[in-house]
Amino acid sequence: MARYQSQTATFTTTQPAGAFSQFGNLWTHDYKVTINPCDNTFSGTGVEYGQDQNGAKTRNENVTGTFSADGTTSLVTTRNDGVDWSLTNAKTDGSGILVQLLAPAGPSLLEFKVTPQVVSTYKNHRDYVCSRAAAPTPRIPASGCRSTAASSTSSGPLAQPSAAPAPPIARRRLGGF
What we know:
mainly beta, Lipocalin, eight-stranded antiparallel barrel, 5% helix, 44% strand
């Protein structure tokens, strides 16, 4: 069950523009996605830009997919002009992969390369809140956030304010004992 956990990531795919099997003139697709860290699925938006024999173009895209534990990426992208394409288990090591264009002209092959994703460091809601909070929140007091202030003298991952130890509790006998 997802508990308000998310991370963001950016990654890029490239494909030859104007000619097959060359990576000098490219269509570049830059994506910014939100990842569900419970299952590594993602969704987000992207921008495709580049130039071929028909001139320069820039198009918006929507993307959904998965970052796999083996370092591969699978995704489905829909451009704002109705073109859909998918990528399955693409390595992020710079090697190329053939992918299938899904619409509008029916299945055909395209060539792509995928960069590794750059992921935010927010592992859970507390990390995110603590990175944004200028002051403690009711649910996460200052002592619950990792201290990143340069003036902090606390040590350890969870900064605790220094205080004198509490005095012992005085006990009183009741009754006639």
